[in-house]
Write a structure and sequence with these properties.
Layout (H helix, E strand, L loop, with lengths): L2 H20 L2 H11 L13 H7 L7 H18 L7 H19 L27 H16 L7 H36 L6 E6 L6 E8 L2 E8 L10 E4 L13 H9 L3 E6 L2 E11 L10 E6 L20 H11 L3
Antiparallel strand pairs: 1-2, 2-3, 3-4, 5-6, 6-7
Helix pairs in contact: 1-2, 1-6, 1-7, 2-5, 3-8, 4-5, 6-7
């Protein structure tokens, strides 16, 4: 999830744990602990682009990191708040749950997290909720703002952290329901349209959970399309993208390519563009692909011009959006 959401969730969890004892300081502890796995952003200061891609949501999003950092936070909090009525094991449980919640939630996005690092490099990715979903984030953010405004001794503070955590949890369950429904429909449609595949995933299109991005294919290439939960026709207009592995003969055999393939979890294509070879990671979708089936992929890496790859993940996510595109997006969500 995005940083603001993590901060707000942590603040609500801190209030739930020790708001009555520590006041708003409890919200601060929760917000910091919920955000600490994202300390991996500092890797960008010394790592090359591809190494940084793998470092993000790597070790700092692992169970081992959680087991190491939770006691550290518990010791700090126990020290700074003496004397108090909170036992060390209660601090330990609180920080463990808060940090685990971060790495657990991030697994529901399409980037993937390294739960088993450094022993296993497998990335866990459930593709259930978009990384920035205002319908998930609005509740804890709203609750956190209200809790910051209200005085510590007000008895109804409890209702707001319950609202923030409860409604976001319900929305996540709703996303699970949508994921299950979409997967069932898409697999039936793939069978009906006689599309064979060895790899497959669905993931929400940007900032909502009703329109889903569909990828199905194999080492030769991928069929890509979109499906809304409001679509009535049992059909998806797929666009086929060949993988073009043969083009890699032109690419440098350095370290970038193996890292990119590992990062993409094998969901990639290669294409020629403007005098260079472009590596497309299909997991992050196309730029307005629901409107332009041939739209370029949001994540693209210039294999022959690696110096032009800064901010490679952020590049292209909302490129070209305007009021007309937004209206088309809404219509497509509604099944039109």
């Amino acid at each position: 999830m995005d940083s603001l959401t993590h901060l707000a969730l942590g603040a609500c969890m801190g209030e739930a744990f020790a708001g009555k004892t520590l006041g708003k300081k409890a919200m601060l502890w929760g917000a910091i602990a919920q955000s600490i796995p994202d300390i991996d952003f500092i890797s960008t200061f010394w790592m090359d682009t591809t190494s940084s891609l793998l470092a993000h949501r790597g070790f700092t999003h692992s169970f081992l990191f959680c087991a190491i950092i939770a006691p550290f936070f518990a010791l700090l909090a126990e020290y700074f708040h003496r004397p108090h009525q909170i036992r060390f094991r209660q601090w330990l449980l609180f920080f463990g749950v808060v940090i685990f919640t971060h790495i657990f939630l991030d697994a529901f996005n399409n980037y993937g997290v390294g739960w088993w690092e450094p022993f296993n490099h497998q990335r866990i990715s459930f593709n259930t909720i978009y990384i920035v979903d205002p319908f998930f984030s609005i509740w804890p953010v709203f609750a956190s703002i209200i809790l910051l405004i209200l005085k510590n001794k007000m008895t109804y503070r409890k209702k707001y952290w319950q609202l923030g955590l409860g409604l976001s949890a319900l929305y996540l369950l709703y996303c699970f329901f949508n994921k299950f429904a979409i997967d069932s429909e898409v697999k039936n449609i793939l069978n009906k349209q006689q599309i064979s595949y060895t790899r497959y995933f669905t993931s929400p299109a940007p900032i909502q959970n009703w329109l889903w991005y569909v990828v199905a294919g194999s080492d030769s290439g991928y069929h890509i399309g979109f499906r809304s939960i409001f679509d009535s026709e049992e059909k998806i207009n797929f666009q086929y993208f060949p993988r073009n592995n043969h083009l890699l003969n032109r690419a440098s055999r350095g370290e970038d390519l193996p890292k990119l393939i590992r990062f993409s979890q094998q969901f990639y294509t290669i294409e020629k563009s403007d005098g260079t070879l472009v590596f497309n990671d299909l997991r992050f979708g196309q730029v307005m692909g629901w409107q332009n089936p041939l739209g370029k992929f949001a994540f693209h890496y210039y294999l022959l011009q690696p110096s032009g790859n800064r901010l490679v993940v952020q590049r292209g996510r909302l490129e070209g959006w305007n009021i007309n595109n937004a209206q088309f997006f809404v219509k497509r969500i509604l099944g039109n």
